[in-house]
Amino acid sequence: MKKIVYLHGLESETNCSKVRYLRKLGHTIFNPPMDYKSKDCFNHTLHLIEMFKPDLIIGSSMGGYFAYEIGKHLDVPVVLLNPALHSRSFEPKVDDLGDKDPLVYLIVGENDDVINYEKTLNYLDENANCFFRSNYFKGKHGHRTPVYIFKIISKKVGI
Asked: Terminus of the chain with fewer CB atoms < 10 Å: N or C?
C-alpha cells in the first residue's frame, strides 16, 4: 500500500469519490483542505506533505498545479488531473519553485472548458523532463475527472 497525497481543486472538497476509492484500496491518504487564495497555502502544504513523506501526489485542477510544484520540491511522482499549470483564474502565491524532475502522469478531458489540454501537453513537453507521452491519458470528459476514469487510469499507473 502507498502513502498518497490528494490535493483537491479550487472549488472542490476533501474526501471526494476518488479519495474514498483510494482509501477503499487500503492506501494511506493525506487529503488536506486547501485555501488556495491564502498567501501561506503553498508553503504550509509543502511543509505538511514533507512530514507525511508520500509515495505519490495526486492533484486536480489547482491542486494539480500545487501537486506538480510540490513534486518538483520533493522529487515525488505526480498524477495530474486537468492541472491548472497555465490559464489559472488567479495566481496563487508560490515563492519558491522546486528544481527536481518528478515522474509525471497526466489525465485530461478533451471536453474540458476550463483548462485547454493541448496547452497543458505543450507546457509539460517544454518544462517537465520526466513527462512522457506514454504517461498521458485523454478521456471524453470535461474538467472534472469522473471516478470511473480515475479507477481505470489508477490501475495503469500502479495505484
From this structure: N
